[in-house]
UniProtKB/TrEMBL annotation:
Residues 134-288, 392-516 form the Nitrite/sulphite reductase 4Fe-4S domain. It comes from Pseudolactococcus insecticola. This is Ferredoxin--nitrite reductase. Belongs to the nitrite and sulfite reductase 4Fe-4S domain family. PROSITE patterns: NIR_SIR. InterPro entries: NIR_SIR_4Fe-4S, NiRdtase/SiRdtase_haem-b_fer, Nit/Sulf_reduc_fer-like_dom_sf, NO2/SO3_Rdtase_4Fe4S_dom, NO2/SO3_Rdtase_4Fe4S_sf, NO2/SO3_Rdtase_FeS/sirohaem_BS.
């Protein structure tokens, strides 16, 4: 490490002490030796290092099975990379993969003994699992339509990829207090959900010496979960070439000043709450040198990054097809079909969005009728507007060690039931998580549902939920508000249906759920 760990004191939590003794990214040096021995030989104290390789030990934690997450900056994959991802799921996983809310993918039941060969296959196509978990920069997300979007100020992909490259495998920034999430987007509808990231670059303009520059504004300190915060805007304007320098400085501030005693206080949002934006900006400028003050914020709305249906690209004669993947779980055989479409009709490219869906770009308009009549679209209908298309959910207790409830099955049943009962002209976004965390973005959902620990009248444990309503990232954002009471799983569908009945009865013609 080339930096000095200035934060060391005698009250560091146990992860911090371990990270000082051994950098998380060195985990990759260990695998060849580790797998020569049975998984039972691996100490539980070592499990935190697996995270840096994108691995979580699944329960029961004695079986040597892992959740494995692959990093996909900006959500872009080539058809060849997608074929490799399909192959991983078929050979080592369970024949499906889950699209995550950070434009990546993850697998379950990955066997310990196969990890070195799996890493080799992933690296061979230019992808990695490095830093998809652990106390490090996570996947950098962006506008899923970057470069093809009529509603972006410019294509922010070069800035996004430069940020990704700066931090990838960089041991100056691999010992952070906890995870760190960055978004880079120039879409004017806030397609990358700026306010829920630790650091977000959003579209802005500024007139400097008689010339108007297109660039970025900066938000810091966002993050959802049990104590959610929306990111706050700093008084700076950046030209695209300044993005990496500022990203590096913000991450260094977090590394050097972020809290390391209690993990529940270790996110940037808590430091920012104590410092305020003025002190934060002062420290930032010490590291970057002078920056322009803020220009014009060009965000005008919020699309939630939704990309569904057949839509025109900004390139004449080309369209993309956005495919709804209910609950984000997709069979590898289905994913292969989308890779084939990209190879046959498109430009060998597929993208994942952060609403657990995918899109195939660069499709010629004169082939759209042929493409949309392919059998795969009988299973994945396009141009629909269903609860299933806009809902999201996390992994849940099927594979996640922290979950109180299952999620994928409950969400699927709930969304199907709502589709049978209602049809609204504007989507209502129902998001369900299995615990107080927000791996799916429950705090900004129209209807956010959180799994909780509960017991029935006989004191037996049951699956139950808390419901919150009215979340949005329109106009800077609004976190949803909890409705008092616990809802047992047995009546969850009825309760949500009743809630939506009130909305259906009371709303004005074109009013959204958030506005009601
Ligand atoms: Fe697990 Fe909770 Fe994240 Fe869901 S939100 S995947 S239950 S940690």
């Amino acid at each position: 490490m080339t930096y000095v760990a200035t934060w060391v004191d005698d009250k560091l939590n146990k992860n911090e002490i371990a990270k000082l003794a051994k950098d998380g990214l060195t985990v990759f040096d260990d695998f060849d030796e580790l797998v020569k021995h049975p998984f039972s030989d691996v100490s539980k104290d070592y499990f935190m290092y697996f995270k840096y390789a994108g691995l979580t030990v699944q329960k029961p934690q004695t079986d040597g099975l892992f959740m494995l997450r692959v990093k996909i900056p900006g959500g872009f994959v080539t058809a060849a990379q997608l074929r490799m991802l399909v192959g991983l799921g078929e050979t080592y996983g369970k024949g499906f993969l889950d699209i995550t809310t950070r434009q990546s993918v993850q697998y379950h039941n990955i066997p310990f003994a196969k990890l070195p060969e799996i890493f080799a296959k992933i690296e061979a196509v230019g992808l990695t699992t490095r830093g998809t978990e652990g106390d490090i920069n996570r996947n950098v997300i962006g506008n899923p339509l970057a470069g093809i979007d009529a509603r972006e100020l410019f294509d922010a992909t070069p800035a996004l990829m430069a940020v990704h490259q700066k931090f990838q495998g960089n041991t100056d920034y691999s010992n952070l207090p906890r995870k760190f999430k960055i978004s880079v987007s120039a879409n004017i509808d806030n397609a990358a959900n700026a306010e829920i990231n630790d650091l977000a670059f959003f579209p802005a303009t500024k007139a400097i010496n008689g010339r108007t520059y297109k660039g970025f504004g900066v938000k810091v300190g966002g993050g959802l979960g049990a104590k959610p915060y929306l990111a706050r805007t700093l008084d700076v304007f950046l030209k695209p070439a300044q993005v990496v320098k500022v990203a590096e400085a913000v991450v260094a501030i977090y590394r050097d000043f972020g809290y390391r005693r209690s993990r529940s206080k270790a996110r940037l949002k808590f430091l920012l709450e104590d410092w305020g934006t003025e002190q934060f900006t002062e420290e930032l400028l010490k590291r970057t040198g002078p920056l322009e003050t803020a220009g014009k914020n060009e965000l005008v709305g919020w699309s939630n990054g939704l990309i569904l249906g057949v839509q025109k690209q900004k390139q004449r004669g080309l369209s993309y097809v956005g495919v709804s993947v209910p609950t984000g779980r997709i069979l590898t055989e289905d994913l292969l079909k989308f890779a084939e479409i990209a190879e046959t009709y498109g430009q060998n490219e597929i993208r994942f969005d952060h609403s657990q869906n995918l899109l195939i770009p660069f499709l010629p308009n004169n082939k759209l009728a042929e493409i949309t009549s392919l059998a795969i679209f009988d299973k994945y209908p396009i141009n629909t507007s269903r609860f299933q298309d806009f809902g999201m959910t996390c992994t849940g207790n099927e594979y996640c060690n922290l979950a109180y409830t299952s999620t994928k099955d409950i969400t699927r049943d709930l969304l199907v039931a709502l589709d049978e009962s209602f049809q609204f002209e504007k989507p209502v976004r129902v998001i369900l998580t299995g615990c107080m965390n927000a791996c799916a973005h429950r705090n900004i959902a129209d209807i956010g549902i959180q799994g909780i620990a509960a017991r029935d009248q006989n004191k037996q444990p049951i699956e139950a939920f808390q419901i919150a309503i009215g979340g949005s990232l329109l106009a800077g954002g609004h976190l949803n508000e909890e409705i008092k009471g616990k809802v047992p799983k047995t009546v969850l569908i009825d309760v949500v249906r009743d809630l939506l009945k009130v909305y259906a009865d009371e709303k004005a013609a074109s009013e959204t759920f958030y506005e009601t």
